[in-house]
Model the fold of this input.
Amino acid sequence: AQSVTQPDIHITVSEGASLELRCNYSYGATPYLFWYVQSPGQGLQLLLKYFSGDTLVQGIKGFEAEFKRSQSSFNLRKPSVHWSDAAEYFCAVMDSSYKLIFGSGTRLLVRP
Amino acid sequence: DAGITQSPRYKITETGRQVTLMCHQTWSHSYMFWYRQDLGHGLRLIYYSAAADITDKGEVPDGYVVSRSKTENFPLTLESATRSQTSVYFCASRPRQVNTGELFFGEGSRLTVL
Done:
C-alpha cells in the first residue's frame, strides 16, 4: 500500500536560514507527489507538485522540492525562511485510485 | 465568491447525537473528499465521491455516512457521534482530470463531541 512518512514532527529554524523538510514515500510505480501548507485555522494550500520530467520542481512562495527515486524521497526546501512561513507542511502521494495519501505533517516554527 | 465552503465551522455536540457537516463547491468539480485531521495522523480520508450518486469509502469510514445527490454538495453525517470523532474535518474537491492532481480545500469544521 502507498504511504508517506514525514520523520520530523517539529522543526525550528531562524528567520533567514535555509530549510529542508523531509518526505519519504512508498509506491511501486512512478509517484505523483505533492507538498501542501496549512496556516493556522486554515485549509491546505498546494505549494508544488511532481508528476514527471524535471526532478527539481519549483513552487509558490519560493519553495522547491527534489524528487529522488533512488531514495524514495521528495524533500521540500527553501533557501531563506520568512516568519510568515511558520505553518504545518504536508507531503502527499497520489495512490493508484487517484486519491491523495498524506503524511502526518511537519510543523515549522520560525525564530525571529 | 466561488470556492469551497464548509458549515458549520465550529460545532459542539454530545455523544450519541447526529451531526451533519455540510460542504458546498461552486466549481462543478467531479471529485469531492472528506478528510479528518488529528494530531499525529495528518489527514485521513473518510469518504470520497467521483460524481453525483457515486461515493466510496476511504481509510476511516466507520461511523460516517455521506451522500451526493448534487454535484456541488457533499454532506458528511455522523449518525451517532462518539468522542473519538472529535476532530477537524476538511472537505476538498478537484476536477476529473488526473493530471491536475491538486485538491482544493475548505477551511475546515472543528467538531467537539462531549
Chain B has a mean pLDDT of 93.
